[in-house]
Structures are given as structure tokens and as C-alpha cells.
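Page header: ASSEMBLY MODEL / two components / 756 residues total.
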Amino acid sequence: MSEFRFELVATDGAARTGIIHTPRGTIRTPAFMPVGTAATVKAMLPQSVRETGADILLGNTYHLMLRPGAERIERLGGLHKFMDWARPILTDSGGFQVMSLSALRKISEEGVRFQSHIDGHAEFLSPERAMQIQRQLGSDIQMVFDECPALPATHAAIEKSMALSMRWAKRSKAAFAEQTDEERRGRACFGIVQGGTFSDLRVRSAEALKEIGFEGYAVGGMAVGEPQAAMFDTLDATVPHLPADRPRYLMGVGKPSDIVGAVRRGIDMFDCVLPTRSGRNGQAFTSEGPLNLKNARFAEDPSPLDASCCCPACRQFSRAYLHHVVKSGEIIAAVLLTWHNLTFYQNLMRDLRQAIAQFRLESFAAGRSTFMEDETSA
Amino acid sequence: MSEFRFELVATDGAARTGIIHTPRGTIRTPAFMPVGTAATVKAMLPQSVRETGADILLGNTYHLMLRPGAERIERLGGLHKFMDWARPILTDSGGFQVMSLSALRKISEEGVRFQSHIDGHAEFLSPERAMQIQRQLGSDIQMVFDECPALPATHAAIEKSMALSMRWAKRSKAAFAEQTDEERRGRACFGIVQGGTFSDLRVRSAEALKEIGFEGYAVGGMAVGEPQAAMFDTLDATVPHLPADRPRYLMGVGKPSDIVGAVRRGIDMFDCVLPTRSGRNGQAFTSEGPLNLKNARFAEDPSPLDASCCCPACRQFSRAYLHHVVKSGEIIAAVLLTWHNLTFYQNLMRDLRQAIAQFRLESFAAGRSTFMEDETSA
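Prediction written out in full:
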């Protein structure tokens, strides 16, 4: 199979399970993509990430363009070789990070001028530059360059920003189309729906993207602090306007309950730093709900972190040991809890895929509501 | 094999290769023991430590008594189970750390009162308490409690300190002998020769320890900043006075050239934080000499860290990648360089054992002199 292709396997209500075929391997959907910001999923070796069940990673255009640089990675043979991950990689376009991390941003029709958050160096991102970088990295799924406005904002402000993102989406697609046949072979370009929490803008954005035409469609501008209900409302308004035969990706989301709710609304792909970042902070997702390993009640607890999990943290160590290494600031604490959290997320995706294939997603989601509700008190 | 036993396999000049048999597994000598200070070899999973070739780890009585506490580890089933390392563990007695890390030390004939460097808590270590802690941890090789004086010091000061350490060695052995048969089964107690760089004191100390009688003999009080030549001179004066049929352990040493020189003088066991600590600081030991991965000359170097090494860092990644993750402060940099450095050390020990068994240690050591000399400029 040398082309990019989405195979729908089964649906259950609005939810779907399928397979994305790419030259670098298949991606089982609904899929969770661990975040490999700076060419590493923090604290993990690539083979360990694969062992958790990940089919695809996310790489960050913004971080990689600043360090070590896209041109350098290209000369070294591309991102896959550089970070020793032979399977698919999706790269974002830098639009989100340029807003959240960089200094002295100046947005124009052309693109965004900004200063690197690492060394203050002057940088520039535009649809054309973002697509060039993603080509240099050798990304399998390349995202259009978009503007991510801060929420809350007025309808007029979001409308203006969305319209700019749609013009940028068109330029991004054109830049992607100019990659050589050899470069583009089996690679995909995804559009990103914007429009904040305004349903009318989301619908207009989705229609504009369909008019351009993409191999997949993302919902962007979420996971920026809005309540879960607002995100679900936005998905309810948006997803019906996305083509059924293309993968749908909810960017930057989320907590397990966010993912379950979004899958029920027809989302196929997710990425989030939560499992990795939480792992480095002593937090674990478990079948009993989230646990903070710093808590003194674990100091002499001989039981495994999660008896239903088969990751190394749960198979080899006690909660007492994990508490000890978290309290001691040991590197192995970050390694073990990241490994566990990624395993938890991948097991959740596996269970969701299976539930959809067996037409029992609603009862599965209801059965998981207990640990979902616990999260807010974590 | 249920008893502790040292089997001498071959000698080459003063150097020896052998096997220490213990109920928890065999230790091939000369052996390097990675340091697992706080119940983890920093940045490594135990199975990864084993993959580097380690037969035995070192645990720190001082650190473990303070956090999580020896009583707690005993209730949780002992140190081996706690940290998931089923093979032999040697524990130091805390004598060295109480001098180098703790505050407000007060030494008396009875022992040492001090404050924890973690929380200022008042603590006490004595020969009896140190042996009790090592029993609670379930240590396979337990070290006597000794005083480690700072160097340089006068002959009179070192003599007085050494005499105290010898009285403590006698009390340590008596406390070890009071452990039940079941507890002591297959476990060993090692004496520690003190005496600074004074040959006459080293000889007297060795004789005093032989009089008490131990399963093995360590040379302590080295690796505290003295020149390599002074350490070798001390070994030349000391080792001939140690029993040939017992293992000899040079505590806290050292650089690769230190180890080669000490093996040539008849030392069988080593421990040192150098490979692990260097790994966390971006330093790698290689067959070309030590390399600092922070150096900009590696930024686009596609070659492996050490082409003759088969660890994951060398097999899967380029120097350019290692440079990138070191510069970015990524956890995986510490993991990969620690893994590599421990592999380098274990490969050195394997090569030393083979060279001794084949009666070609002198030519082996001469052939290694190039990378040894490079070290000083690292």
C-alpha cells in the first residue's frame, strides 16, 4: 500500500473505527498520538512508545524549526531516522505554539513574525514556510498553517481570524501540492476547522475547507481552557459538516473523558501532552481514577499502581516504590509514570475501537463514567 | 549454591579473574558495580542495567535509611523486591556519606550523630546500627561501619581515625555475626582497610582486619581527590597484605584508567558514580576517549556515538541526535548516555577478565593507553 487511504471498518452511532493506511504503516482509529515535541516523546525510548500501542507520533514544527532546525534534520535524513521512529508521524504547523510560546508576535496577511522562546532569534512562519518545514521533516500528515486566537473572543474577532485561517489553508494546500510527486507520495495534508465556540463560524470554516479539499479534517482552537460542554457543543455543530470518508482529528485533546465524548461524536484522532506531562509530575491515570503518587498514603502501599495494567511500572514495582522515586525526584519516576500513562491512553483507545466494532460504545462509556468523574477532583 | 564463596579462576601477574558465588547469583570478577543510591540506578530500569552486563549493584545505607527508611523497606520485603533487582546487592555502611553529605556531625567512640541532608532530622549511625540497616535492606554483601577522614591529614590524625575504624570493624563483625543463621545465609561481611596514603598504617589496618576475619576486604578512603599515583602506591603497599582467597574491593573508584591500574594490582571489585553522573551531564566514555555531547561539533555528526558499542544510544541514534537531546535538556539524553556509559564500563570489565584469563593483561592495558590518556583533557 503506497498511498494514504482511510478505511472505515465499523460505525456505532456517530462513532467510527477504521484504519488509516500509509506507506509507513497503518494507524488504527480512534487513535491517540503521543506528543514528541522536540524529536522525543519525553522520557521514553521510541520502542517503548511503540510497546504502549502507539501507531503514530506527533512532532512539533515550531520546536523543531528552532532546535535543531528543519534544514538540519533534512540533511540528517529526516525526522523518522533522526528520532528512530519508522512509523507515521503527524506534524502540526506551528500555528498554536507561535501564539502560546513565542515573544513579540506580529501577524500579517503574509504570516507571523516572532522571536524564538529559546534564544530570542527573529523567525517567520507562513503557510508556505510551515509546509516547507513539514516537507523537510518528512512528515506523513502535514497540517495547514492556521491562526489560533485566544478564547474568549467576540464573534467578529473570531470571524476575522477564521477567515484568515481559511486563506492560509488554501495557500498551505497549494504549497503542499507543489511538493514533488516523490516527496508527496503517501503523504497527506489536513485542513483545520476554526471558529471558536460559534457554530455558524465552525460550519462556514468546514465548508470552506471541503471546497479546498483535504485528505483529513482537524478541529482546532479547542483545549484552550473552555468547559468540556462547550467543546462537545462545538463538535456537535462541526462534525456533521465534515466528510464521512476522511479522518477527523481533534487537536490537543485531552482528558480520557474528553476523548470518550469526542469519539462518541465521530472524532478519529487525538493528541495531548497530558499523559506525558502528568507522568513527569507524579500523576497517574488508573482504572480507579487518577492518582497523585506524591501522596503520603502510598508510602507503604505494596500494591501495583493499577492491577489491570501490564506496563513495567505496574508489573515490576509497588505504589510504595513509585511514591519513593517521585518524592526523591528520580528520573525513573518520570520514565515509569509516562510509560504507564501512555499505556493507559492506548488501552483506552483499544477498548474504544473494540466497543465501536461490537456496537456497544454507549454501554462502554457508561461503565467508564465512574473513573471519568473522579478526574475533576484529581 | 547456597553459600558465599570466591572462586579464583586465573591470575596474570598480580591481577586475578574469578567468580563470587552467592545465593542470588554469580559475580564475575573483576566486577564493576553500578551505584543505585536511592534504590534506583539513576535514569535506568533494572533490566536495562542487567543488559549492560552488571552482575551486582551497590546500594547506599545512608540514603536509604533517610528515605524511604530501612524499616519501611524491610516491611515491603527488602531492597531487592522494592527496586526489582533479584541479583546480588552490596551496601556500603554510610560511613563515607555521613562525612560528605550530612550536617552537624559529632563523632564519638559509640558512633556518629548527624543531621539528615534532606530534612535536618537528627540521626545516628554506629557499627551496630549500620549492620542492622544492611540486614533490614537484605544486603548480600554488607560493609563494616568506618570513619572516612578527609585528606590530606597528618599521620597522627589518620592513625587515630584508622584505629577507631578498626574498633568499629570488630563491632560491625560482631553485629553481623548476631544476625540469625537464616538472615546471614549466603551473605557476606567485608572489612575496610583505612590509613590514608600512609603505607605503614594501611599494613597495620590490613593485619587488624585479617585478625578479625572477613569474607572480603575493601580498600577505603581512596577516590577523595588524591593523585592517581598516590592511589596506586597505596594499593601497592596494601594489596600484598590481603588474603589471596578473598575478594578485594576498591571503594568509589573510578575512571577507566584507575580501574585498569587497580586490576593490575590485584583488585576484584569496583563501584563509582562516574558513568551514571557523567551520563546525566552529557559526557560519554568511548573507545576514542571521552566526548562531551554538548560540543557544537556534534550538531550535524551522523555517526554513532561509539561504532564499537552495541547499546541503544549507539545502535539507534546519531551523535547529532544525542547532541540535540542533551542541549534540549531532554530526559532521554540522561537515559541514553547513562546506558552507554554503563555499557562501556561493563565492556571494559569483560575485556579485563578475558585478558587476565588469556594471560595478556599487560598488552591489553598498553593497547588501551591512548584513550586512557585522553581522559585528563575531557
